[in-house]
From TrEMBL:
<dbReference type="InterPro" id="IPR052338">
    <property type="entry name" value="Transposase_5"/>
</dbReference>
<feature type="domain" description="Tc1-like transposase DDE">
    <location>
        <begin position="193"/>
        <end position="294"/>
    </location>
</feature>
<dbReference type="GO" id="GO:0006313">
    <property type="term" value="P:DNA transposition"/>
</dbReference>
<dbReference type="Pfam" id="PF13384">
    <property type="entry name" value="HTH_23"/>
</dbReference>
<dbReference type="InterPro" id="IPR036388">
    <property type="entry name" value="WH-like_DNA-bd_sf"/>
</dbReference>
<dbReference type="InterPro" id="IPR002492">
    <property type="entry name" value="Transposase_Tc1-like"/>
</dbReference>
<dbReference type="InterPro" id="IPR036397">
    <property type="entry name" value="RNaseH_sf"/>
</dbReference>
<dbReference type="GO" id="GO:0015074">
    <property type="term" value="P:DNA integration"/>
</dbReference>
<dbReference type="InterPro" id="IPR038717">
    <property type="entry name" value="Tc1-like_DDE_dom"/>
</dbReference>
<dbReference type="Pfam" id="PF01498">
    <property type="entry name" value="HTH_Tnp_Tc3_2"/>
</dbReference>
<dbReference type="InterPro" id="IPR009057">
    <property type="entry name" value="Homeodomain-like_sf"/>
</dbReference>
<dbReference type="Pfam" id="PF13358">
    <property type="entry name" value="DDE_3"/>
</dbReference>
<protein>
    <recommendedName>
        <fullName>Tc1-like transposase DDE domain-containing protein</fullName>
    </recommendedName>
</protein>
<dbReference type="GO" id="GO:0003677">
    <property type="term" value="F:DNA binding"/>
</dbReference>
<feature type="domain" description="Transposase Tc1-like">
    <location>
        <begin position="70"/>
        <end position="141"/>
    </location>
</feature>
Length: 346
């Protein structure tokens, strides 16, 4: 049985060589596995035209979008990352001599390396906050994993009873995930659901505390005294631990600062840059909890069930999960340095 498809130049050369060596058409076909028709055609083309290469690559319909058209399409995508295929097609066809279909646009974009992706959600950073993030990264650029093991990470998070996904999609190349035009800025906001506060370090998961009402300074002082203090003194009995918290208003209240000042001989509060969830590995633990909730066979139908599910998932988080997150701190710092304080992919 003969082979399908074009013959390579090497295969054509083998056929010509075998025939010139004195093998018959049938013997050459049996030796190389091609049909007798193919053997005869290739040798005849060589004998008459000295042809040993295929010209089929020059056959077929010419592409409607040439190199110049691809550059124009790339400009259209760069000007509006959120444009749909329909919009890109309409804009491309305006003023052009040849009109192309949406199918052609979609195929061309894929050939150019573009794909439709959801944009990364990143905090809206001011120039001042970028500078503070960069200063933090520079100050901790030489910290090793052993240094980061001395940090206890904390944060609050809200889990919604009914998850809503309103994400948009964009066109981008593979290496453009953190391009400013491929990002969606987010701001802190509330919402219905269950709020919890948690803490962990490389050594252990800490407690997860439900917050029944809004987390004001009084409520946070109770968390600090009842949960942060025993966790830090247990994990770091030699007073070499760092406690991380973000810059939420309740964290920076006077009574909180006074409490930490009274206990500064037991542990150190890590000075944290603003708008830096990408530097806090506990954010990834919240993502893990969120995903586990969404794949539950029986979804929570009220806030109490949701709270119970969150607490149960938290206690079952594997050690390698949160330890791996702490070990990711050097790359996170490096990413902030590379971005000059800007948002990163973490």
């Amino acid at each position: 049985m003969g082979k399908k498809g074009d013959l390579s130049d090497f295969e054509r050369g083998m056929i010509v060589g075998a025939r010139r060596a004195g093998l018959s058409i049938s013997e050459t076909a049996d030796l190389l596995g091609f049909s007798r028709t193919t053997i005869s055609r290739v040798y005849r083309e060589w004998s008459e035209k000295e042809k040993t290469s295929s010209e089929r690559q020059f056959c077929g319909r010419k592409c409607l979008v040439d190199a110049r058209g691809q550059r124009r399409m790339a400009r259209l995508v760069g000007a509006d990352r959120r444009a749909t295929v329909t919009q890109i097609t309409t804009r491309y066809n305006q003023g052009g001599q040849k009109s192309i279909s949406e199918r052609t646009v979609r195929r061309t974009l894929r050939q150019m390396g573009y794909s439709s992706r959801r944009p990364h959600r990143v905090p809206l950073l001011s120039a001042k906050n970028r500078k503070l993030r960069l200063q933090f990264a520079q100050a901790h650029g030489n910290w090793t994993i052993e240094d980061w093991k001395n940090v206890a990470w904390s944060d609050e998070s809200r889990f919604l009873l009914r998850h809503s996904d309103g994400r948009v999609r964009i066109w981008r190349l593979q290496h453009e995930s953190m391009d400013p035009s491929c990002l969606v800025s987010t701001v802190q906001a509330g919402g219905g659901g269950v709020m919890v506060w948690g803490i962990f370090s490389w050594h252990s998961l800490g407690p997860l505390v439900p917050i029944e009402h809004r987390c004001n300074a009084t409520a946070y002082l109770s968390i600090v005294a009842d949960h942060v203090h025993p966790f830090m003194t247990t994990m770091y009995p030699t007073s070499d631990g760092y406690f991380q918290q973000d810059n939420a208003p309740c964290h920076k209240a006077g009574i909180i600062s006074d409490w930490f000042l009274e206990h500064d001989n037991e542990f150190t509060v890590l000075k944290w840059p603003p708008q830096s969830p990408d530097l806090n590995p506990i954010e990834h633990l919240w993502d893990v909890v969120e995903r586990e909730i969404r794949i539950m066979d029986v979804q929570p139908t009220n806030l109490q069930q949701l709270c119970d599910a969150i607490m149960s998932i938290w206690t079952k988080l594997p050690e390698e999960c949160f330890q791996h997150l702490v070990e990711s701190m050097p790359p996170r710092i490096e990413a902030v340095l590379k971005a000059k304080g800007g948002p990163t992919r973490y």
